[in-house]
Specification:
Oligomer: single chain
Family: Belongs to the CheB family.
Largest sheet: 7 strands, parallel
CATH superfamily of the largest domain: Methylesterase CheB, C-terminal domain
Order of helices and strands: EHEHEHEHEHHEHEHEEEEHEHEHEH
CATH architecture of the largest domain: 3-Layer(aba) Sandwich
GO biological process, one term: chemotaxis
Strand content: 15-25%
Helix content: 25-40%
Strand order of the largest sheet: 8-9-7-6-12-13-14
Structural class: alpha/beta
CATH topology of the largest domain: Rossmann fold
Enzyme class: hydrolase
CATH class of the largest domain: Alpha Beta
Keywords: Chemotaxis, Cytoplasm, Hydrolase, Phosphoprotein
Protein name: Protein-glutamate methylesterase/protein-glutamine glutaminase
Length: 358
């Protein structure tokens, strides 16, 4: 059965290019296009598409307002088409909070050639979205009040630097899954190191959003930085994050080396480094995501003595990465999203201190 796609964009050029590159792909049928949300609404009723590609910024009704209505009244898989700008990043993260499955970015110049260069990625994301789980928006879309300002945590907390390290990887659906997990972490949690597939220009907005919603201090890692409890670290845009051992401590290693599994940052890169640097002191988790990045790295963590878990299929937007880890035998446990933070803390506390300085 072909995936039926409706392309919604105010640019005639983008509508044409997206339609043509999607229609070339066996297994995808472009059933229509719409220049604004009002036309899109009528075409959704008439054409019943499986997936919508939706421009973030449009006339008459902006993409976010339309998306919020759609996810409340007729939830369906949506892939956002975003501009690579600071505002584009912020709006896209809001769209993912409202229930969009994934997003692709369009360049500011040379849109036709730029989209063509991303053809394989766009096709993969549309096909992945067709298999995604989409739920009706029940509550005002994660419009959380910013957390109160926090002081940096004293290092004499319950966890010493070498006690435990939590490593998390995610892709499609992960921006919200990670936010949900970090919201439930206490301010003195063991250090968390994360990799989320996200365009370089979006990483800072993502880190700032996580920091607003987490009791931990969330930051972009800098090369050589000490890994501290109560802190969560993500790589800066378009860089890998690795963890290295420095005596009884860990440090961040940030670099722009070649993509792995077509990704930079890649989850496998982070997990493999954690397996070597932290071994049984670490806990590993893969959340929702497309593809299989992280599965082999999680296996290496497990073989190094780290407990491992993945998000379950029922609560994952896309069960690609977690499913790949399960098939490989890399996951000790399969956990629903609302229990992951608690489980990570249990595993991190299980032998807190027993391997310190190992």
């Amino acid at each position: 059965m072909a995936v039926r796609v409706l392309v919604v964009d105010d640019s005639a050029v983008v509508r044409q290019v997206l339609s043509e590159l999607l229609a070339r792909e066996p297994g995808i049928e472009v059933v229509g296009t719409a220049a604004d949300p009002f036309l899109a609404r009528e075409k959704i009723k008439r054409l019943n598409p499986d997936v919508i590609t939706l421009d973030v910024e449009m006339p008459r009704m902006d993409g976010l307002a339309f998306l919020e209505n759609l996810m409340r009244l007729r939830p369906m898989p949506v892939v956002m088409v975003s501009s690579l700008t600071e505002r584009g990043a912020d709006v896209t993260l809001q769209a993912l909070a409202l229930g969009a499955v994934d997003f692709v970015t369009k360049p500011r110049l040379g849109v036709a050639q730029g989209l063509e260069a991303y053809a394989d990625e766009i096709v993969a994301k549309v096909k992945g979205a067709a298999r995604a789980k989409v739920q009706a928006l029940m509550r005002p879309a994660q419009r959380l009040e910013p957390a109160a300002p926090r002081a940096s945590m004293p290092l004499s907390g319950r966890f010493r630097t070498t006690d435990r390290l939590i490593a998390i990887g995610a892709s499609a659906g992960g921006t919200e899954a990670i936010r949900y997990v970090l919201e439930q972490m206490p301010p003195d949690a063991p250090a968390v190191v994360l990799t989320q597939h996200i365009p370089g220009g979006f990483s800072r907005a993502f880190v700032e959003r996580l920091d607003r919603h987490s009791p931990m201090l969330v930051r972009e890692a800098s090369d050589g930085e000490l890994v501290l409890p109560g802190h969560a670290y993500l790589p800066p845009g378009d860089h890998h994050l690795r963890i290295i051992r420095d005596g009884a401590r860990w440090r961040c290693r940030v670099d722009g080396s070649a993509p792995v599994n077509r990704h930079r940052p890649a989850v496998d890169v982070l997990f493999r480094s954690v397996a070597v640097a932290a071994g049984p002191n670490a806990v590993g988790a893969i959340l929702t995501g497309m593809g299989d990045d992280g599965a082999r790295g999680l296996m290496e963590m497990k073989e190094a003595g780290a407990p491992t878990l993945v998000q379950d299929e029922a609560t994952s937007v896309v069960w690609g990465m977690p499913g790949a880890a399960v098939r490989l035998g890399a996951a000790d446990d399969i956990v629903p999203l609302d229990k992951i933070a608690q489980r990570l803390l249990e595993l991190a506390g299980a032998h807190a201190g027993s391997h310190a300085g190992a």
